[in-house]
Q: What sequence folds into this?
């Protein structure tokens, strides 16, 4: 990941209210967050003790739920 060179947006009292990042750094942070969410979902599924569901059955169940 690129080093952070954040810049702050401050209000009238000088209190930081936002941060500016280079778009590449922002995209890297989003990708890392998505990866972390996938890892957490995997860990939760594994800890649930439920039997794994074949992909085809999972897709069918999702499609039935959204129709």
A:
């Amino acid at each position: 990941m690129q080093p952070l060179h954040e810049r702050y947006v401050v209000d009238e009292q000088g209190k930081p209210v936002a941060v500016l990042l280079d778009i590449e750094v922002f995209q890297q942070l989003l990708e890392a967050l998505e990866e972390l969410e996938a890892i957490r979902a995997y860990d939760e599924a594994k800890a649930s003790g439920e039997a794994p569901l074949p992909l085809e059955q999972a897709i069918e169940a999702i499609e039935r739920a959204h129709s």
